[in-house]
Specification:
Order of helices and strands: HHEEEEEEEEEEEEEEEEEEEEE
Number of domains: 1
CATH topology: Porin
Number of helices: 2
Radius of gyration: 23 Å
Largest sheet: 8 strands, antiparallel, barrel
Strand order of the largest sheet: 1-4-5-7-8-9-10-11
CATH architecture: Beta Barrel
Shape: globular
Number of strands: 21
Helix content: under 10%
Distance between the termini: 50 Å
Structural class: mainly beta
Strand content: over 45%
CATH class: Mainly Beta
């Protein structure tokens, strides 16, 4: 922990590894009940006539990563600017639902879940002087009730989902003028998408991305006031058990070995914490903008056994993030970050069910960043390619004739950006982290 109580880089790496290891363990445990006969290589001569049935009641569990995208401003306009809350934490819980397979290729359903959502980042606001303004936006649990509509190719289901969300939050504001907090359950809405695949024996595995907006809350201690918008994004990996599942066809086998290329795209969240590296002006302020990325990827897989695949993959994408923050109660401080492109080079290790590959991935990452720092009438800019690491995971599913798609999450940490020294000598430096939620369409050469 640093002097302000923030986790250092080693703690962030450890937290991300724990989350991904937990997700991998959960998926591997779920795959175990599938019989050897389900997973052994087989000759499937009548695959086009096989019908997999998703109808039925199911329960399951999930683990994953949650991110905070909340913003706050003074509703009285007494203080200029805004607060961007940044934070990453663990999420995990239980789920129950029901599917109806309404045709060979379409599935509709309803699903509810409740679980822990651990987001909290207490920070001293940048350049508040003697006022010593501390703010935090903390979450404890999340519940959703959603509809689902999915397209199935048999043992794989790709779906969109949306509905109502409830988040228990605690907002706090502390300064020399006094402390005030509000703890309540906020109601809002949620939407997202995901991929689910059959493992055999009634078990399925899924990867899904959800976005939550849980409305506003207002605080005031007489000197400072905030109206906070509660927004969150999360990637969840889970397993479900379908009760009373009808006898399903044997899972078709697939040879993952070979070279592939494809297109990738999706949403992205910025998570930047800005501080004065000299320590002259204490505190920090955040930048948590959102945008999108789109590009291409290439890679090679080796299927080292019927159930295990290793590989290497590289990708390069346009990275369209552009977000400015005028620091709360500080009309002089304006920071803007613009990203142009992102590239990664990663290894993959995956568990193959035949029609799907459940994998973890990690390696190097590069982000081209343009930063602008304005202190009153003085502005300075820097354009730099930052390098660091990425870690993540996903599910890749077979579509047809060598084509696959995947639902993937990547956490990217490229470290500190340039030291920006604006006239008359006021410095800031940002710690750059990004969250990528993406899908891809890939073709494996050789079919």
């Amino acid at each position: 922990m640093d002097s302000q109580g923030r986790p250092g880089p080693d703690n962030r790496v450890t937290d991300m590894k724990r989350i991904l290891l937990a997700a991998t363990a959960l998926l591997a445990w779920a795959a175990a009940p599938a019989s050897a006969a389900d997973l052994a290589p087989k000759m499937v001569t009548k695959a086009p006539q096989a019908i997999w049935d998703w109808t039925g009641f199911y329960v399951g569990g999930y683990v994953g990563v949650g991110t905070n995208r909340s913003h706050a401003f003074d509703p009285t306009a007494g203080a200029s600017g805004e607060l961007d809350f940044v934070g990453t934490g663990f999420t995990g819980g239980g789920v129950a639902g029901y599917n109806w397979q309404v045709s060979r290729n379409w599935v509709v359903g309803i699903e509810g879940d409740i679980g822990y959502l651990g987001l909290s980042h207490n920070s001293l606001d940048y350049n508040e002087g003697a006022a010593q303004l501390f703010t935090n936006q903390e979450t404890n649990w999340l519940a959703t009730l959603r509809g689902r509509v999915g397209y199935t190719t048999g043992p794989n289901l790709t779906y969109v989902t949306g509905g109502a969300a409830w988040v228990h939050t605690k907002d706090s504001l502390v300064s020399t003028a006094g402390a005030v907090s509000s703890s309540e359950t906020k109601t809002g809405w949620v939407y997202g998408s995901g991929t689910e695949t059959m493992l055999g024996g009634g078990w399925t595995a899924k990867a899904e991305t959800l976005y939550v907006n849980a409305g506003d809350s207002t605080l005031s201690n007489g000197t400072f006031g905030t109206q906070t918008e509660h927004r969150y994004a999360m990637q969840r990996f889970g397993v479900n058990y379908l009760f009373g599942a009808k006898p399903q066809p044997a899972l078709p086998q697939y040879n993952w070995s070979g070279a592939y290329a494809g297109i990738i795209g999706g949403s992205a969240n910025t998570q930047i914490k800005l501080t004065d590296p000299t320590g002259i002006l204490p505190g920090e302020f955040g930048n948590n903008g959102s945008g999108f990325h789109v590009g291409g990827n290439v890679g090679y897989n080796w299927q080292i056994s019927p159930m295990w695949v290793v590989g290497v993959e590289g990708d390069f994408s346009y990275f369209g993030l552009n977000h400015s923050v005028d620091n709360y109660n500080d009309s002089l401080a304006l920071y803007t970050v613009v990203t142009h492109w992102i590239a990664t080079a990663r290894a993959r290790v995956g568990y193959s069910t035949g029609p799907a590959l459940l994998y973890v991935t990690g390696g190097g990452a590069w982000v081209n960043v343009n930063e602008h720092w304005n202190w009153g009438s003085g502005e300075v800019a820097a354009d730099k390619t930052l390098s660091g690491y990425t870690i993540g995971g996903g599910i890749e599913t077979v579509l047809w004739n060598g084509w696959t798609s995947k639902n993937e999450y990547l956490f990217v940490d490229v470290g500190n950006g340039s030291v920006l020294n604006a006239p008359p000598g006021v410095r800031v430096q940002g710690d750059h982290e990004y969250h990528l939620f993406r899908t891809s369409l890939t073709y494996k050469f050789g079919g």
